[in-house]
Design brief:
The chain is mainly beta. The chain is about 5% helix and about 25% strand. The protein has a five-stranded mixed beta sheet with strand order 2-4-6-8-9, with no helix packed on it. A five-stranded mixed beta sheet has the order 10-12-15-17-18, with no helix packed on it. A five-stranded parallel beta sheet has the order 19-21-23-25-26, with no helix packed on it.
């Protein structure tokens, strides 16, 4: 009889298991079914397995290689109930099966254009991931992305205006927090590396965490269309040299520029407006008021 489900706690604290191969018949991996399998180093599963219950692979700290017989689209359709449901919460290297039937390290993932959301924890801790491409139908990052320290390039296949409308639930859920370079598409349909940021004229609000951790950002121009800059919108951006802020901005929330090394801030307002929180900027000391940008 084929096994269709690994039951809850089935192999908990099995210290002798170092490798697992799941047959195509296994659909569900139960809660904490491999929790504490401290010698586990390799896991292989197929597209037949679709559901990973809560903490299925928690405390498998020596897990290194995770082999999956599907492609990126198949992986993104998996259901992980928690961070530690995914073998990648502990695993170091993820492999997909290529068209030639050979496993290869996953260094690039392109989310198909028809995806309107990314399932929770599917892009968690893929430590060999170097390039991520996401379409502009994705409007929210919530528990889908976390901890890919190797990420070099993040491509958002929309305009800067599109990106400014994306909702981010926490900094760690945004690829921008980890990527070294951020690209989006300009109005001419050309890919563009963003280093000097001019907020588009159709944007009135900069969402919380919108540009958090943007590593290559050097200069920011926030024009008259913007009325509100939310909490930690530009926090943890290490290379900012200049920020220009229009007098039209009525509200800047706490820590909008916290943990950010800023050379100079130029504000058109004559002094700090009442709607700007006193801790809107916790780093920059060179603030010029009543500045008129030429």
């Amino acid at each position: 009889k084929s096994i269709t489900e690994i039951k809850n706690y089935q192999f908990i604290n099995n210290y002798h298991m170092d490798s697992i191969i799941f047959s195509d018949s296994v659909k569900v991996i139960g809660e904490k079914s491999f929790s504490g399998c401290s010698d586990l180093k390799k896991v292989t599963f197929t597209t037949g397995t679709t559901t990973f219950k809560k903490d299925a692979f928690i405390n498998t700290r020596y897990l290194k290689d995770v082999y999956f017989t599907g492609n990126a689209s198949d992986w993104l359709n998996l259901d992980f109930e928690s961070f530690d449901s995914s073998p990648m919460s502990s695993g170091e290297v993820l492999y997909f099966l290529n068209a030639n039937g050979v496993f290869e390290q996953v260094e690039e993932i392109e989310v198909p254009n028809h995806f309107t959301s990314i399932k929770p924890f599917t892009l968690t801790s893929i430590n060999n991931l170097k390039k991520l491409v996401i379409g502009n139908k994705i409007q929210k990052f919530e528990e889908s992305f976390y901890g890919s320290d190797s990420l070099k390039e993040f491509y958002y296949k929309g305009t800067l205006s599109d990106w400014c409308r994306v909702e981010i639930s926490s900094p760690e859920n945004s690829p921008m927090c980890f990527a070294e370079e951020f690209y989006c598409w300009n109005d001419s349909g050309e890919k563009e590396l963003i280093t000097n940021l001019v907020i588009p004229s159709d944007i009135t609000t900069i969402n919380r965490y919108q540009f958090y951790g943007f590593k290559q950002l050097e200069e920011i121009h926030i024009g008259s269309s913007v009325k509100t800059i939310n909490y930690q919108a530009f926090a943890d951006c290490d290379k900012i040299e200049k920020v220009y802020i229009s007098s039209s901005i009525e509200t800047i929330k706490s820590h909008a520029f916290s943990f950010t090394t800023v050379g100079d801030v130029y504000c058109e307002s004559q002094s700090r407006p009442a709607g700007w929180q006193i801790d809107w900027n916790t780093i920059a000391t060179n603030v010029t008021w009543d500045y008129q940008e030429k």
